Amino acid sequence: MTGFGVRLADKVAERGNLCVGIDPHPQLLNAWGLTQDPAGLESFARGVVEAVGTQVAIFKPQSAFFEAFGSAGVAVLERVLTDIRQAESLSLLDAKRGDIGSTMAGYARAYLADDSPLAADALTLSPFLGFGSLQPAIELAERAGRGLYVLCRTSNPEGGQVQLASDGQRSVAQSIVDEANRVNAGREHGPIGLVIGGTLTELEVELADFTGSILVPGIGAQGGTVDGLRDLFGAAYPRVLPTSSREILSAGPDPDSLRAAVAGVLTAQHRAD
Ligand SMILES: O=C(O)c1cc(=O)[nH]c(=O)n1[C@@H]1O[C@H](COP(=O)(O)O)[C@@H](O)[C@H]1O
Fold first, then answer.
1. Residue 192 pairs with which residues in a beta bridge?
2. What is the enzyme's class at the highest EC level (predicted)?
3. Ligand 1 nearest atom to the CA of residue 249, by list position
4. DSSP codes of every residue in 236-258
């Protein structure tokens, strides 16, 4: 299969550079007039894909909000992943997995194996048990043509406490960039992406050699804007994939309003370009 990085670049060229987060918060289910149960969850999440599925390059369902409803919620997530595929969009499952290598192999099978009901085009991973612990996921992602987005500089204010810790030579965040560069080496669209928050005022990592996609959350509800991304990312800006959840989702349930919200973020980005 064509690798994730190339598939993403093609889809972004066709539909625009935006990842729409599907985060079915209880408050959003209320705001949409939906019940706090698997039926409400399903109307919400599948409603988003039905409204903007053919307009959006990639969706990021947030696993926690589906898991909160137990097996019925996970079944909804499976159907949402299928809907995304049918809309010929890409899926990035936000599960932020990270574990010792042997268990990581289990998570990798769950989210990246072709025959898994929860397989997504890409998956978010936490490298804070050591980048090397992610190796089973990296191997399976490479074989299956899927992508991985590894947390690097997160959008939350507490992130720097761990990510900017340094051994005197380089920070934890920079070591993650360096490891990602090692895996992506020699490829124009490497399979390892990074997650770097759009709420930051300074990157504090060197991205000059990075050849993967950079997922940028924190746009909208957390205060980040697409306007500031070119200055923040400099030469790495062409690799940036902004993602927004609540800012867009709060425009629903009306499908036209959801479509207008997506178009609004894309237009703001074009203006900033
Ligand atoms: O990996 C992520 O997607 C992520 C990393 C990060 O540093 N910050 C962050 O907000 N996210 C996710 O991005 C989404 C942000 O949602 P909104 O703030 O509603 O746009 C949530 O699903 C977060 O879990």
1. 148
2. lyase
3. 19
4. GGGGEEEEESHHHHTT-SSHHHH
